[in-house]
Task: structure prediction
Amino acid sequence: EVQLVESGGHLVQPGGSLRLSCAASGFTFSNYAVTWVRQAAGKGLEWVSGISGSGDRTYYVDSLKGRFTVSRDNSKNTLYLQMNSLRAEDTAVYYCAKSGVMGSYYYYYMDVWGKGTTVTVSS
Amino acid sequence: EIVLTQSPGTLSLSPGERPTLSCRASQSVTSNYLAWYQQKPGQAPRLLIYGASSRATGIPDRFSGSGSGTDFTLTISRLEPEDFAVYYCQQYSSSPYTFGRGTKLEIK
Result:
């Protein structure tokens, strides 16, 4: 069974840092891009960041560039999101999701999602 | 950045009805790289449609997607009770791979 399990979310003070992890299983992790999506309480989905299967290409929403860094360790089947200089508006559930495939290539739509991990930024 | 505008914001319907949800892009979505997701309260989103019109694995055929360029549509042929949820469109044509703000489908 294809599965993604996020961890690392908790309460952090404004200006603090946090690293989220996403453990993947049930598929060949390095063959797929993976993505972080967040959702503030009662709000819509916000695409945050994506990383290619090999890790050599990364993508971010413009508003988060410079504060968030996505990375992956294919030997550990794990995706990461390093979040620095956190603000109250970063409070959200953070989901990781696996890219879908069309033909022989993966694309940045998401066919499998984790259950999410909650980040709260507050003093 | 491609901005996706979904309409209506909320749709109040009864089981058995046929809703049409709209997603309009601020610029053309290359190769119809558009997906639709369903999200129920307290759950992660679920992929329904990719490539504008291809159903994801396990998705009932009452869900269909159509459109091209800047105008896309999700149609549910006959609403079932479990279909009441929020629906999001997402473009994966160019980074950042943005979502629309969602359409809430509620029971009338």
User: Anything to note?
Assistant: Residues 48 and 59 of chain B are 6 Å apart (CA to CA). The longest strand of chain B covers residues 20-25.
